[in-house]
Structure formats: C-alpha cells, structure tokens
Amino acid sequence: MRVSKATIRAVNGLTARWADTTSGGTVFSAVGVWPLLALLADGAAGAARAELAQAVGIPADRAGGAARELLAGLGSVRGLEAALGLWTRRTLELRERWEAGLPAGAHGVLTGDAAADREALDAWAAKRTGGLIGRMPAAVTPDTEMVLVSALALRTRWLRPFEEGYLAPESGPWRGRELRGLWRESAVLDRIGVADTPDGHVTELKVLGDTAVDVHLLLGEEGMAPGRVLGAGIGVLARTHPVVPGPRLPYGDAGPGLSVVREHTTTPEPPALDVTAPAYGLTADHDLLDRVELFGLTAAVRAVPGHFPGVSPYPLCVEAARQSALARFDARGFEAAAVTAMGAMGAGMPRARWLRTTVRAVFDRPFGFLAVHRHSRLVLAAGWVTDPEPHREDEEVYLPESGH
Q: Do residues 368 and 203 make contact, with C-beta atoms less than 8 angstroms apart?
C-alpha cells in the first residue's frame, strides 16, 4: 500500500484522539472518516478550512491529494474493499476542480424522493461492504443537497486458527459468565510483548491474518481507561513506547493478563506462547456531530454561507455526519466494516525430565483491539470489548480456567 508516512501518522492520530473519547464497548474506523474530512478541507474556506485541516493533521492545500492517495492505497490491500461515493441534487453545481478529484463513477444523483434515495443509498452501503452493513447511517432530508460517503469492508483469515471452547473467568467484570473461548498455542513468542507507557503497562498480542492485515489485542492494567489502552497500542505502532518482547519477558507475572512459567515436559520442547481469549462481535453507530471539535466541524455545521466555496458556489453547511461500524473476531478470522456519511444541506503422567518455558496470555476482562495493515502500520479499525460472545451449548471443548 503506497501511502505517505505523513498521511498514516495523521489517520492514526485521529484514531488515537477518537479512542480517547470512548468509554464502553464500541468499534470505530477513523480511516473511514478521514478522507471525507480531507476532501471537505480541500474545498473549504475560512474557519471551516482551518478546523478541518487541524482535524486531519495535514495542510488543507494537500488534504485532497492525501485523501485520494489513501483511498487508492486502501484499494490495493488484499481482503479490503474501500469506496467513496457522492450524491448531489441535480441542481447543485460542483466546482470542476473539486469534482475531478473524486474517483471515477463516484458521483450519483439525489432524486428528491426520500424513499427512493434512501433505498439507493442503503443498496450502495450493502454492496460496498459485502452485506456487513445494510443501511446508510445518515438520513437524507428534504433539505439535503449533497451526501459524501465512504465504505470500508475488511476480511482476513488467521494464518493459524484458534480452537474453540468454553471460557469461564474466575475474577473481574466477566466473573460467572460462560463465554465462547478461543485457544491457541505456538512457538513464536515475539507475537506478544508488554509496552511501558505513561499510563501503565499494556500487553499486546498480534494475531496475524493472511491478507497482511493483523489484529492487535490490547490488555491494560486494571483501571486503565479504554482510550489510554488503545492509545498505547497506537503508540507502539509509532514506536514511541518501549516494548519487552515475549522471548525477553521475566518469569512470573510479566504484564497484564500475562505470566511466564517453566514447566516439566517428558520430551524436549521449544518455548510456547499459550493464548486464551473470547470471541467477540461488536456493532456501533456514531454521531460525529456529538464531537464536532474532534472532527473539525464546529464552524462547518453553522448554517451560514462561505464554508465550502471550493466544493460548490452554492452555500453549503454540514447537516449530518454519522458512522455505522462492525467487527467480528472468531476462531478462523476477523472481519470489520464501516460506512461513514456526511450530509450537507444545504484463547497417570510419565516422568518429566525437561523444562519448557511457557508464556500464558489470558484476555478475560475488557480489552481493546486494533486492526492494522502490517506493512504500513495504518490502523483500519479499532474498538473496545466489554461484552464478548456467550458460550453455545453445542460447544463441548473446554479451555483452561482463568483466574489471575
């Protein structure tokens, strides 16, 4: 994926800032919002231009090009579908330069028939996400002149699948719950590490996918806020926090949910990484206008002329900005999707003779995750897990009990 380091830093920066505003279980995709903000910044003026440029972290005069570069880069990632769409009323004139910067075939027409327009927009969202998200998050009103939309759908299969079983945490918020557990053992210890951050230690586990997209599970110290844990994960990607990798972890309690032990074995065996985690599925809807400062929309929502003269000579303001997002993590893989719309309205013994080192990681309380493009380190989706999937009665495999 050919995307500049500046753009990746900017998108990941927005992910970190958005994460810092989260509290309960959620999933979101800053990479779904960022190109829309950047395209609006390219056509904005005055306070709206300055605020949008600050939100995207790139000067407004370079934002449009960066958005196009990002969309093209996303389209080159195997297992990832990304699209941009624009719908306008027939009577809305667009600036030729701004419209020319949109992907080919992205421009559609709003008919003025609310039911017909809703059906068309919903169909676009469903098609572009492979049915993961079936509705456009922002409604079209009689005053809507323009709708700018992005869609993102990600599917990856684990290089090594997990085994499914039964997970029953003995302590913490999930104590007493019967969860759909996932377990996996491998000899690759560097998939796990402990980051030392200003807010506390965070255990990071990388689960590798077959499309160069990986999911990083993040477990912080008890009491760490979700945003701090997710922010720590982004800091690790940026190499701003020191990390002790699995092969160098000390014996005993090595980090949140993490222990390193020496076990007797009957035959010589290499060190092992033993992971237990719950399966999860999340959906979330976000009204971006609840955080206008975060997304640089404070001025742009005001119904006064002059915000977007580079988009259209017709005076426009942002009337709606919403995102619907989804993420699923199970034994075989991970999938995520996000549709973002902005409307303008206007885891008897023989004698043991050998010792083996085992690193055990147990994710049995709320934790965060980042879906990351392996080579560029761009965060494609992020979230916080508070309600993992329950154990199904037809699951007969049992995982080791957790109780740390």
A: no
